[in-house]
């Protein structure tokens, strides 16, 4: 401890010029001095120190572009804040987790909870959403190969979250930060960083508890901070930045321990499992029989396969023994384990589930109507899965037979955890076996003009695969 204090005092005394400049500009708001990033000898970003007068805690600060941020998560004790797993030692490393109401007033005087716009300014400064995760995450402490390069000494650590039921999750795997920007109904915008290189936006229920990073200055009318440092800092070399891929290509059992729980936080506009009582997809295109949007499942049994799904809860309700109500309540989505067994056929086994976009014209009608959904632009899906999923556009038996061997357009969802994926209609295509054998050719945009149902298909070699599809919406609506 003595050696550390001696080194720190030496660093402080060597940087009085920067301290003077900093205090001249911001007065007594900041009490401390610049220091070098002790965790990385290549650092050239100046640190400052700020002491919170309310409780005497000190925080490192960092200047990135024209913004001055706390370089650590806030750890001020509010009645609506929590330590991960209710362990006080977690707060020392990761800071506290705050409800949105608490986050609004948690930052000390002269600092504030940043808006979505202010976070976007930060992401633009460090290279954009596709690389911001890698640039801003700490270079150690993340599970599943999720460490960042910490090029800007922002040092995001995987603090996890506390959900609305009081359960904790994603510690070691994810970081979630509130913004001051309201979303829809009971939501507010939040920032999410995971093991991949990019940063994603989404909405969270306001009584969940997430981390807080404070930004210096007061919020002006345009959503920007009114107090900024006049000169920009230079960043460390970015040669070590990770790939911008938003999907992890390999998974471990630990990374999927929460696939069957309600941890997926983003919502689309058509259906979202976390919205209480929302058991059907609201397509707005019901043909008259009031049967659109209800979920159903299928498997390869008609082709002598032995595949099935082990659901996380029992199917059925008081009116329909095959209803998905209990599953959606349990998982805040549709989740289970796909048990794939090819049985007596010679292609990969499959299971799946889906919904009719319009349904029949009458309640007892057999023929499901075809409708034009091209104006949706495509689909967005929120999901977790340890195997790739297919999203298929069902075109009705007559049309599908004309394609030969039911070679219908589909798009793929790569395996991964807590993914938001946007699929334009141009992303949908046929596998091709039907066209080779003389069947009809059809593109995704063409198919979108005459759709009967939308299906999620799990097709892979024999094995057991966990999945959770949490939400579906029109293109770009999942946040």
Radius of gyration: 26 Å
Number of strands: 23
Largest sheet: 6 strands, antiparallel
Extract low-pLDDT stretches. Answer: 1-45, 226-263
What is the subunit arrangement here? single chain
Number of helices: 10
In angstroms, what separates the terminal alpha carbons?
A: 46 Å
Shape assignment: elongated
Mean pLDDT: 80
Give me a quick take on this structure:
It contains 10 helices and 23 strands. The protein is an alpha+beta fold and 479 residues long. The strands form 7 sheets. Strands 13, 15, 16, 18, 21 and 23 form a 6-stranded antiparallel β-sheet that branches. Strands 14-17-22-19-20 form a 5-stranded antiparallel β-sheet, with no helix packed on it.
Protein topology:
Layout: H1 2-13, H2 16-26, E1 47-51, E2 58-64, E3 67-70, E4 81-82, H3 88-94, E5 97-98, H4 100-106, E6 111-112, H5 116-125, H6 129-136, E7 161-162, E8 168-169, E9 175-182, E10 187-193, E11 199-205, E12 215-216, E13 271-272, E14 295-299, E15 308-311, H7 325-331, E16 334-340, E17 350-356, E18 378-385, E19 389-394, H8 397-402, E20 410-413, E21 416-424, H9 433-436, H10 444-447, E22 453-459, E23 463-474
Antiparallel strand pairs: 1-2, 2-3, 4-5, 6-12, 7-8, 9-10, 10-11, 13-23, 14-17, 15-16, 16-23, 17-22, 18-21, 18-23, 19-20, 19-22
